[in-house]
Amino acid sequence: MKTRGFFGKMATVAATFAAGALALSGCAGGGAGGASNSDSGAAASNGGKVKVGVAMPTQTSERWIADGNAVKEGLEAAGYEVDLQFANDDIPTQTQQIDQMITNGATILVIASIDGTALSSQLDTAGSKNIPVIAYDRLIRDNENVDFYVSFDNFKVGVAQGNALLFGLGLTDKDGKKLDNAPKGPLNIELFAGSPDDNNAKFFFDGAMSVLKPYLDDGTLVVKSGQTSFDQVAILRWQQEVAQKRMEDLLTSTYGGGSEPLAGVLSPFDGISRGIITALQGAGYGPAIKDGLPIVTGQDAEIASTKMIADGIQQSTIFKDTRTLAAQAVTVIKAMAEGKQPEANDTTTYNNGVKVVPSYLLEVETIYADNLKEKLIDSGYFTQADVDAGVVKK
Ligand code: BGC
After folding, report:
1. What is the CATH number of the domain that holds 337?
2. In what residue span(s) does the Periplasmic binding protein domain sit (predicted)?
3. Which residue's CA is minimally distant from atom 9 of ligand 1?
4. What residues are paired with 266 via a beta bridge?
5. What is the per-residue pLDDT for 393?
6. Looking at the structure, do residues 193 and 302 belong to the same domain, yes or no?
7. Which of 27, 141, 286, 297 is buried most deeply by CB count within 10 Å?
8. pLDDT digits (tens, 9 = 90+) for 95-117
9. Mean pLDDT to the nearest integer, 359-365
């Protein structure tokens, strides 16, 4: 498919923006050059407004609700119109929502995909109408019409998860430095990964394995089930119940139903972690780490898991401040609306199968019981009352 490329799209959006600004200032109708509504594509179809379609995957996990709302607020504060939709983790729902956004005159799309390979028809249409597409947190694959990617450094998220597990097992300090008095092992661990259709899941797993591998190679750590490949350990759609069932099956097949030692479990996401912990406690481990519950990692600082960390049940989580990711998306959109090239800080890592997508990647923090207050409460992300209750009170 032939499109006008990034700057062609930007010119269209910038013209839209200019036309909207003129209309707002009461100067519409001057018919001056590029600001005229005679421009084709997105600008013509929506009456000269910057209208951003924001497609989020699901409301079953808190982070996506926070992401969606924060992006919407930031864009509205900048004066743009926003169409925010959540897709219930259902691919046809998401494709329909994006089709509808385009029909309704979206001039820019922000998409956190469910399946990163399932949106080609929507992206082809966006490309043919010169609508820029920003992949939000999850890379959209196999299509040239992905103009920018905002996310966290996903490989580093995995490294942080692997390091948290090593630290929890007493093998390293928090930075991954080997301790002299570390246990010799062998220590049994099990591995979980995220959804195979989410481009991030492989990055998290590879990052974690990069730090676990030396300990697996020298026999300090043993994956007793033998299930070590991404395909064997991935959990479709990141589902808590599926993870719980897999952990229960592993305990039955490999740990005598809970009578044999298991030191830790690599978990890529708090929902999966809670499923794993339920299975472990059900088989008689724990109930808390001090009682012998295996070390379980996580991601997203969901409130239920944050409480479990404070209570000494889940060992850690990776905090991704969705406020900063949303703000970064808004910065990118503002640049696009003004016809500028958004600033990238990574132009090599994220090849979507067709091209390397310019990216802006943010840093993450590992949360343990001892820094939870400083990182999550003092920063205003949660209140102490939220953490104590394990739910966010409005
Ligand atoms: C996100 C994670 C999240 C997971 C499940 C991933 O794409 O990067 O933050 O835990 O999806 O929602």
Report:
1. 3.40.50.2300
2. 52-341
3. 300
4. 191
5. 79
6. yes
7. 297
8. 999 999 999 999 999 999 999 99
9. 97
**In a domain? residue 115:** yes
Residue 300 in contact with ligand 1 by CB distance below 6 A: yes
* pLDDT reported for residue 52: 97
Is ligand 1 within 6 A of the CB of residue 197? no
* CA 245 to mean position of chain CA atoms: 24
- 8 Å CB contact between 167 and 173: yes
> Which residue has the least CA distance to atom 10 on ligand 1?
269
29: left (phi over 0), alpha (psi -120 to 50) or beta: left
pLDDT of 38 above 60: no
Shared domain for 316 and 332, answered yes or no, is: no
260-315 pLDDT tens trace:
999 999 999 999 999 999 999 999 999 999 999 999 999 999 999 999 999 999 99
pTM beyond 0.85: the answer is yes
Q: What angle do CA 184, 190, 195 make, to 5 degrees?
A: 145
Check residue 290 and give its pLDDT. 98
Q: Is 178 helix (H, G, I), strand (E, B) or coil?
A: strand
Overall number of domains in the chain:
2
Say if ligand 1 is within 6 A of residue 136 CB.
no
In a shared domain, residues 256 and 297: yes
121 and 158 in a single domain? The answer is no
CB 240 within 8 A of CB 305: no
Instruction: Give, for ligand 1, the residue of 113, 197, 200 to mutate: max count of ligand atoms closer than 8 Å to Cβ.
Output: 200
Distances (CA, A) of 173 to 96, 125, 169, 221, 224: 48, 50, 10, 16, 24
